[in-house]
Amino acid sequence: MTLNLVFTSDEYNGSTLSVLGRNPAFREMPIVGGSGVFRLAQGSATAKMYWIDTNKGMLLFSIMHVIVLR
Description:
Blueprint: E1 2-6, E2 16-20, E3 26-35, E4 42-53, E5 58-69
Antiparallel strand pairs: 1-2, 2-3, 3-4, 4-5
């Protein structure tokens, strides 16, 4: 799974974090980079899946904790 977190307000406006990882129900995924104030960022994010519809290819999950080193 790839995920780009896009920030739209305050000092982080226009910056992104890029997350990459597997897709089990509970996951810990590495932060593999970013842009703006998060350029060359690394760290980890945890997330939990709450709902999935495999027929439509849709899922709902929540980012629970993000640790970023920049």
